[in-house]
User: Fold these one by one.
Assistant:
Number 1:
Amino acid sequence: MIDINFELPVSKLKEALKNVHPSDIAVLFEDNAEYREKLIEAIGIRRFGEAFIYLNDDLQVRYYLKLEENKKRELLKHFELDDLKTFIELFRVSYHEEILRLLGKERREKVVKLLSYDGDTAGSISSPSFMYFDINSTVKEVTSKVIKESDDNDEIDVIFFHDDVRFVGGLRLQDLIIARESMALYDIVDENYPYAYADDLVASAVRKIRNYDVSVLPVIDDKKVLVGIITADDALDIMKEDHIDAVEGLVALHDHSDASSPLKRSMQRLPWLLMSVVLNIVIATFLTTFSDTIDSNVVLVMFQPMILGMAGNIGTQSIAVTILGLHHEKIKPMRHIRKELFIAIINSLISGLVGVLIVFGFLYLMPNDYADIDKVAMVVGISLVLSMFVSALVGVLLPFILRKLGADEKAASGPIISTVNDFAALGIYFLVATILLINM
Amino acid sequence: MIDINFELPVSKLKEALKNVHPSDIAVLFEDNAEYREKLIEAIGIRRFGEAFIYLNDDLQVRYYLKLEENKKRELLKHFELDDLKTFIELFRVSYHEEILRLLGKERREKVVKLLSYDGDTAGSISSPSFMYFDINSTVKEVTSKVIKESDDNDEIDVIFFHDDVRFVGGLRLQDLIIARESMALYDIVDENYPYAYADDLVASAVRKIRNYDVSVLPVIDDKKVLVGIITADDALDIMKEDHIDAVEGLVALHDHSDASSPLKRSMQRLPWLLMSVVLNIVIATFLTTFSDTIDSNVVLVMFQPMILGMAGNIGTQSIAVTILGLHHEKIKPMRHIRKELFIAIINSLISGLVGVLIVFGFLYLMPNDYADIDKVAMVVGISLVLSMFVSALVGVLLPFILRKLGADEKAASGPIISTVNDFAALGIYFLVATILLINM
């Protein structure tokens, strides 16, 4: 963390901030609300433009809206194109035009193109700053073009080539340097360089970067024309968001960000909680059908949390393992399901067996006036086995079913499913109890 | 996915596999057990060595152990140093020497160095293939050294410089290309290039790559000597593992990998499940102290799943949001806790209010012979508010407390805590019930 004394005069501040990275400038800007104007004065609008996209979303929007039009225009000028696109998407669609009209024609057209891609496609996250040359030129020509077009803002680790207009491959700068001027580009360009299509899913593009160990992945359209690149750094940001999404999905959160107001975040989490209340009333209704069994065997109530908890635990394990598999690897459905169900059977059986022994021991040792403690222990054990297995079965199959239906497999997690599992577990518990304790 | 007809003669197979990426070779090797020898014959040991590290861990170990010594030696020769280190760590420590002695002296020393770093430090994941030059040389000298030392296997997007022996900065290859031969390196090398210390945490190194948007992060030792680099691609792999760890932590899994045997994985998940059984017996014991209240108000049982479920839901939300914050951002503890508790109060109150209304409506409409349905509804409502708030409080505070104690904050999730929350929720429920229904 950087410590800056903002009481210094601007000239000294300028010196102190000279080599601070944009992302650290952003932190300073966020943390020192009272010195924001002074900070901008010290670093200049250009560097502030570079730092701006590192600010939290809320602050970006609020700060931008307060600026006068010429300041807005000035600020936007210093955004890179992909950042500009991300920035515009922070605003409601009806305001986009308002921002776009402040851009120069060329930049506006490129951003409009980026905005036109679907949100979860490779095209939408690609950056249009890349070098793209004719493969029929010479090493010497390409080298001098690289030197001429190289700009401080762009990261160019790999340059790309087309034949006619179609993408043919990539060449690492490092290989261009060691190439002799007389070499034909066709001989050194890697024609098997991996690429993604603009409408491929983001996740699949990220997986390509990871699997093929490239630092830049080119994105081409359906005519095989290069339209953008995704760098490994971009992929890191995407993975971070993705990771957060997955964990939030598991617990039915929608916005973990510290930036939005607590009240707003509270309202985002509430629907799920309330839905869960309603679902639990369905469970209560269902339980009333067993009121005779419960009335005459109140001891069953003691072990209700155990049945619910164990079914819940094994269920979330199965869901998580299945979602992780679907997300990060190409798992083979039948093999995965078979293996997971095998694990579920083993673990349910062992837990049930331990349950019987421990419940019997507990009832035997505790002073109480319940008869049939052996039968109660059996009820708990059998219910554990069955409810755990059912819960695991749901957890393993549901993500696949959702994916098959075209839905997001992550919807399999969350309070709704856990309530459904509660429902099944209690149904099994009291059904087994009714059969063993009442009818026998 | 690549489709290869393995019935083809080796010469044709060689042609078909010519441009297949190592990671795809690995998939083919995994999926076509009966053609493994033929595949190796077609691609040669060198390319097999490159593909080997993409195989699943289990297969790497099993396959390696079956090889004769000279084949082992040959295979190891084609591993990159950081991969070699990862590979060796798949084996138990007592076997490491066995592998190390098959390496040439220079490679052995470098790998031993890598193995010496703690598992979660930047040093342990760094790769020792980098270019490191004296900053007092000329652009021309450096360029010719890059050309000479450049090797197909290394990714060199950034080269690094030392003055004497200490690290002074980095220079992107792209900037080297555009530099005029007469320029002093001191003027073009970025002396603010971000770096990590070898004993920094992996997570902090990854965050640097992400925040500073660099494709390579140099790792230096405490004498400021460059000892390795971490690329953005490496960071992607680490983030993937990290992501999996976090989700597994949330559900107390330890190995989601498809690769180990189901029985082994079953045994890894079992301890938590069994611990949960035991903890639930503690809950049962606790519940017996309320047996009078339960006996005379069996209707309470109907709403027990609601209390448990709601406290559980809000608790996992709080834990997840706190762990995500601690992991991905530098959250300010007091601010985060204050905000989260505000959200918890709002959501508990609203859920409790809805609970009262819905339970009252339910009891009013359902045919039953319970008296005091207004009091029962109050008990459920008050218990919801209190138990949800307590559960959220634990979820927000525990990760901070664990971190303060030097433990992993992810331990806050998992079955133990959910059982503790169950315990608190039921205690509150039956205590409130005893006060309102029995003593009043």
Number 2:
Amino acid sequence: MLDLATRAHDHNFRIDPIIRSLLDTDFYKVLMAQTIFRRHRDVAVTFGINNRTARIRIADEIAEGELREQLDHARTLRLSRGESTWLRGNAFYGKRRMFSAAFLDWLETFRLPEYELAARDGQYELTFHGPWIETTMWEVPALAILNELRSRAVLRDLGKLDLQVLYARAMTRVWEKIERLGRLADLSIADFGTRRRHGFLWQGWCVQAMAEGLGDRFLGTSNCLIALRREVEAVGTNAHELPMVYAALTDDDAALAQAPYDVLADWQQDYEGNLLVALPDTYGTTGFLADAPDWLSAWTGIRIDSKEPIAGGEEAIRFWQSRGADPREKLAIFSDGLDVDSVERIHAHFHGRMRIGYGWGTLLTNDFRGFVRNGRLDPVSIVCKVIEADGRPTVKVSDNPVKAQGPAAEVERYKRVFGVGELAALPVIV
Amino acid sequence: MLDLATRAHDHNFRIDPIIRSLLDTDFYKVLMAQTIFRRHRDVAVTFGINNRTARIRIADEIAEGELREQLDHARTLRLSRGESTWLRGNAFYGKRRMFSAAFLDWLETFRLPEYELAARDGQYELTFHGPWIETTMWEVPALAILNELRSRAVLRDLGKLDLQVLYARAMTRVWEKIERLGRLADLSIADFGTRRRHGFLWQGWCVQAMAEGLGDRFLGTSNCLIALRREVEAVGTNAHELPMVYAALTDDDAALAQAPYDVLADWQQDYEGNLLVALPDTYGTTGFLADAPDWLSAWTGIRIDSKEPIAGGEEAIRFWQSRGADPREKLAIFSDGLDVDSVERIHAHFHGRMRIGYGWGTLLTNDFRGFVRNGRLDPVSIVCKVIEADGRPTVKVSDNPVKAQGPAAEVERYKRVFGVGELAALPVIV
């Protein structure tokens, strides 16, 4: 009863592609892409990979030829008819026709642009130059490819039984985490784990486990393809990329100081409701909230990312109170390096004082820590960030100096303009 | 790429049979069967099921119709050509032609005989009447059917993801046990878990995990079919059934006192080497060893079963020393309700003082304790024992009164004849 056709077909693949669909990306990339498409599509932008876990020499773990094969394969992909239909016909955050016909017509013709790749000092220098609307689309697939190639390099050395035990342990760990989460009152949690996942199939399993284990307390996944296939909600809003490019494009300090609010002003023209969640930390949360226009307090919520979460949540509550809003009607989304311990701690602290959502990323979809020797399956803190816009360097300050980015002189200028004082470094796990 | 043929074929099964081969039994049944075939094949013997975990109402868990279907299916089985070839051609314990042509010619024609089944007070009364050579073959398949039907009754209520998590946890648990065992010096361990396994496929996985995790420290499996398919050693020697029937057939106290040694005398005519392992506890280990003929000290070893293992091992060492044998050249096989804790304890106590082997049973192949509510997958201590021979009740005393069996008056007579004093009860887990 061997399925000879399946077996022959599987052996016909030249490679085992990691990215098999342009929708295998985070929903917020599509949301941001529409905003970029409408206003800044031709800004020349460079994205680049940065491995913040420098002790892990990724270029020693992954063969350059394999990496090129995967990147090249991703470049062959086009939006399929069914995928386009989903974007056009599905309701996102309860709203249909989230995306304009013009944007989707463009997306149907889109292919990922060229890349530049070199290895240096054990790390890959992987960069993407071109129109913002094109290069922005590389972030998630590039990261997913690098992370899954790392996994595969380890899995290749394991026998069938070792693999079974590995996944048995990983499933057990994820399920026990979900059981713990299930004990929290009024939980709302989503999968944000695409970019640094162990692998695509594994992320799919994690989403299924969340959905079955948590029921309607599981909000959905950031991954469009998994959302489509498993018929769960696609979730996400926006990222540092928008203020970073908006800021880089300004010509003076006054315009720079205004740039993060310009992002919000554009965003609220494009989206509404639960998509109105501001990310305040690009140039320091404290200054951002102090200088924010009053209309920001009418937004649905705030995402608390690089700031220590208890401090960040308290700051959000103070902001809403100072503007006359009731924090219990506001939403705080926590999304930085979460695991069950931190979710429990945050929940114990804030439950009942405001609405809370969790975007659970790498430690949902890539927690194989301790399962193989030498931590070879431990996740790394690798990012793909915009580094240049129209020839000017982009800058990120954030609330954690470990995550700062940009030329030192520009970082100092931004800190001055945004009134950012000295910040204490927080450890970055993932 | 769906395999329509496989799918259609799978749906064509009227039932999903638990026993699919007459070799899906323990090797010691085949060894004992040859001895029975040669000397006592037509003794009328009754076997019966006894659930020592009386609080578990098996007849409430398993539908009688399903049980009958499985028993009926087992009765349709005949030794296949390849199975017969394996018994004829394979080397067992290093020896070829372990089984006579006459015995194998008979086995090729054998089918499991009729059964009698009734439910009473939440338990099944399942008995097998007929020639010893036929009824003896029911023990292992009957137990395996009852245990796997219990598992299935629980699994039926679980979704696909629950099932994945269940097996993920079980694999993780087994593998962690094997990793602990792997740290013991000079380990020799075998799978004895057929009769009370969670299921056939699961036992196969456990055997594979033992083989890959322990290499040549894994001696093999008691299950003939798994040994054949996975090309590992088939292991086992003999059980209480032989002295129980030999004892029941005696006409006076003097013959009764001699019966356990008659078993050994017959056994050493049929087998040699590592198959010469005596099971001393049927009517009390202490008296058995005190009265044993000197030639027993030339046997390879002793199996320590119902006695507390440290006390049983010390008693074996004293026996060998008292007969002038060097315990370091002798083999003690421990086989009663073992799990990793007890193996570690026994090993720490005896390692270096004698050769040690472990027959690991139920807590290898059926340790799903705590994985579902109300302990519904916890193993039960269920046995299938010979209860009558030529119209006379059989008796077992053992070293643990919890495991005693037979009419009270007969048990008392046996205890008097074999000089068994008062025994302390030991808990029976499985």
Number 3:
Amino acid sequence: MQPNWIKQRAYLTPNRIGLRFGGESWTFQQLHEEALYKARQLAKFVGRGERVAIFAPSTPELIKVIYGCMHLQLEMVLLNGRLSTEELAYQIEDAQVAMVLAAASDVHKLPQNIEVMTFEQLIETEAIEINIATEWQDNQTISIMYTSGTTGFPKGVRQTVQNHSMSAISSALNLGITEQDVWLCTVPIFHISGFSILMRSLLYGATVCLYEKFDEQACVQEIVAGRVTTISLVSVMLERVLSEMERLQVQAHPNFKTVLAGGGSIPVDYLQRAAKVQLPVVQTYGMTETSSQTATLASIDALRKIGSAGKPLFFNEVRIQGTDEPFVEGEICIRGPHVTPGYIGRFAERASTENGWLLTGDIGYLDDEGYLYVVDRRADLIISGGENVYPAEIENALLAHPSVLEAGVCGLMDDKWGQVPIAFVVLKQAVTEAELQAFCHQRLARYKLPKQFYFVDSLPRNGANKLLRRKLIELL
Amino acid sequence: MQPNWIKQRAYLTPNRIGLRFGGESWTFQQLHEEALYKARQLAKFVGRGERVAIFAPSTPELIKVIYGCMHLQLEMVLLNGRLSTEELAYQIEDAQVAMVLAAASDVHKLPQNIEVMTFEQLIETEAIEINIATEWQDNQTISIMYTSGTTGFPKGVRQTVQNHSMSAISSALNLGITEQDVWLCTVPIFHISGFSILMRSLLYGATVCLYEKFDEQACVQEIVAGRVTTISLVSVMLERVLSEMERLQVQAHPNFKTVLAGGGSIPVDYLQRAAKVQLPVVQTYGMTETSSQTATLASIDALRKIGSAGKPLFFNEVRIQGTDEPFVEGEICIRGPHVTPGYIGRFAERASTENGWLLTGDIGYLDDEGYLYVVDRRADLIISGGENVYPAEIENALLAHPSVLEAGVCGLMDDKWGQVPIAFVVLKQAVTEAELQAFCHQRLARYKLPKQFYFVDSLPRNGANKLLRRKLIELL
């Protein structure tokens, strides 16, 4: 059991700034009161503990709605703003939500047959009297995020009160915390990278400095002025921040403490450039199923342990399936209070762990000091600009086209995005690349669209006829 | 479930200093290895999970024995070094320990009929092969400390893995943590004030700077040189540190962050003097049953909320029995993951909580901002002519007099009034009884004025230097 975080935070540090956006700011007391009012409005439509979907850009209104939902102990399905209409329909249907809450600006992206309550309509709703829970159960679900595995079918991952709190606590024990902490959030709230910043803010009493979109100029201004202490970035964003700092010939303010860099490994060149502009980069290995970081590499080890994701956080354990030996590769397994208890919807019955261990599907090894190296991502995962792209999902989309007999997707190195997906297709009958592009565009988020289509006679397969995605690149 | 803290800490930060004593220091890796060796020696005599008593001064050897016991998951009864032989015999018998471990220097204080393994004998013991547990259960008991509470009968209080970890985590969320933290420990390890410093060290990766005895000159040297960042003190120790700093005309180093001041409220005068020498004082309300701090007053609130113990730490709840109104006095009740699950021995069957709430027996109130004020420990309450008289209030009045170093107040049976308060005073410089009477008269209602003043050399205190008001009467 834990206290209601929003209420407790407002009680403990009412006058501390909880959120900054543009020129405006809100104390934790103000956020609590606004969230309470949202909860009273939401209570007209949904009961405590019900499930809702949320679809909106990163604005203060989104934060207030999220905190309002938390006051009502609603399970929030965070919908990715980049998804196609079809992908959104799948998740909304699978999650069986009582209600979809969306910013009016984004409603047009949602399936037309779905009833939506806009944030603007919610503001007009009468508030009713409610009693909010002053305590939360550890196993209560706060958020649900969809992520695809080997099958290409997205699974809704539960993230509970305990998952989020132990993730935040473990991070604090590793990175340290002070009363002056301000976490710059330019990563999406619908991803665990952004959502976990909100959770840390409530638990630490730290300010969230929110931007609707990533903007390297604004980031650099905040970092140089000493108005933020921490920022979460993926590789491609870090590069843009570095370029901007180099262009302006500026360094990070001494207040600035940490770049938490996730979503795949960071090129050595970036680390060296970061050191020159006084940006301490901390690389991390995390995922939706672990409510953010599992292992994190201290910045002092950044150049000594190049390519490593560091050591587990205090309450976490990492091991390599089937071995205790250093330098032996195998599937990375994770255990700890931050690991999801499971899925919802179609996959609700599927166990997420074995004896408490999450089998990530990622391949890696531990060195002789216990530092983790992630060698290959699960199920041939492609990481493009920090977004996870699952080949199977794109292949499934292509196979739905009447002209496509077989499809295989893999990642191609890309200077800007790290990787981009490319597709290899065996045809039943003639079709143009343009038609396939248009077909995918209807079904997939833009970042998942193959950058190239290659028409081939056959795909590399093993004896069991299983597609060998890692051999696709040899067809080029 | 949690990882074995000692092993995990050695894995995560092997080269960080875990303990400093005199001119020596030990890394976490060294402590882990030495503790492991102790565990292998102890395993000759006790099995995993058994109960032992420990009786020794605060030396590195004690720390290694404690960590060794933790590797074996032993339940450690920490015996107070200032107890009488009779009191020690009671606790050892009540706890039914498998073994008593003691420093040779202290064996003579123990009951003669008890078999003791000295630390020195343990060092000579052959080490056997063992497998230590890599995981600990949340409800596993780490330590047991005896406390009398309101009844006068000492009860052995369990302090579990979860109690200690959530106490340390809650403290970190409140006070902040950094990699540079060094906690100066001059309070006894056999009290929760000292023992909790060890637990925080393991969880935070912070250095313990250990002293066998409190010594204000050494404390001041550490504080002024910037070699420590935090210190735990009780009021009387704080006064000695302040006097020494004033005598030397020195200020705390900018590295120094916090005096955590427990064991009763701190006189306003001390707070003002502390501010002048740059010592940020954080007052706390904690007890054995809550594995250290429950509520803590931030130093910025020290002079704004004089006499307050602050607000609860993040995962804790505090309420006043029978009321939700501000400023209404009643019994202080505490709930949270830091509250003991119960007692051992004679009181094993007695519930420590009601619906999760620990009834402390202490009287207090919450103000309109939710700050806790501890008015008095219930057992010390003096009832005089139907009026409630709280000794602490009278003592605070006396301590404001420039000639008074220490003051203790208790009730004396009185034919007319039932009880009357009497005062025991340790002087800094000469003063007449008449002057003190006049001084109090200005500050207190007539019924609160001490009927007698006794000038004494010292006041009765327990091992944590806490005033024992019930022993005052014996000074007569």
